[in-house]
Write a structure and sequence with these properties.
The protein has 379 residues and is mainly alpha-helical. Helices cover 58% and strands 5% of the residues. The model is unreliable at 370-379 (pLDDT under 50).
Length: 379
Amino acid sequence: MYILVMYIYELDNWTRFNYDAIQILNELGIVRRLQGELLGKMQMIGFNLQEETNYSTIVENIMKSSEIEGEKLNKDHVRSSVARKLGMQKPGVEQSTHDIDGIVEMMLDATQNFATPMTESRLLGWHAGLFPTGYSGIYKVDVGSYRKTEMQVVSGGVSRERVHYQAPLPKAVPVEMKKFIAWVNTPKETDAILQAAIVHLWLVTIHPFEDGNGRIARALSDMFLAKSDGTPLRFYSMSSQIQKERKTYYNALEITQQGDGDVTLWVKWFLECLRHALEAALKKVEDIFKKARFWEEHSTVVFNERQVIMLNKILDGFEGNVTSGKWAKLNKCSTDTALNDLNDLVKKGVLKKSAAGGRSTYYEPRSSLALQLPLNRSS
């Protein structure tokens, strides 16, 4: 039996986006408090650490936004492109590729130029940057322009297909996008975080492009979040959290797009996801503080390069036990050199040797270092 589904864009005045303020105000208040706490702590850690956190967050955001779409990027290429475009010196990283450069340019344009008015040419430029070869995988894409074909979001194999969403007809896209861009550029009294939720839903509902709609929608959300933060520096990754919660992400979108025009469910989901992203970022900031305190307290102690590298790995949450074999492998040195390094750290009171002997011997932080960061003790 065929069931007729009505989508929100078929409703009159569908872009009014009604939501229940009472249901979302509490969550918005929590998010705003966490946002203020994070930005306040980031101001305390100094410019160099801010710059490094911004860099790593942008890299993570780009990687995870593509992973949501089932595409795994080369992290070294992403790191190289981001570093170069931020003017940072990162020795030893590989050169990036044109397709990754386009993704990075879109993300940086969205967040660093969040106050710049949106134009159709800017948005189409983002799309062209995502597909510099004119292909998405093995499929040719009409880049830098709105789609000219009908679009469905479908899952399941042949004869078991399920249509999750049917986008507006191609002839409606230019008109819908004109209204969308006008809204993006119009000053609003609505909180910018709520705007970040709305802009995401609105863009993917129009689905104006043959491919790349999700990534562009997330870039637009990041643009409004940067506006809300009041800074182009990124200290939390919304795309990383969406990737973790992608099942409920698609579910919230589907229910809302097939709903009666009330977007409360979507806005609540977005705020909850953002809260989780901010909480994760605050945990990382605490780890940065702990790491900085350790090096400050040991500023007069002389460590060799291998020891510095490994202590940073331990402070970052080294998985498993620290053994001479792992030390030698990671530092590309002999086992004797690794043992000398480890025993030197034992003498300096940084590490202690486990009670186990022989090949089972491992080294763990003394209490002063262990307090800096909880370690994973699994082997």
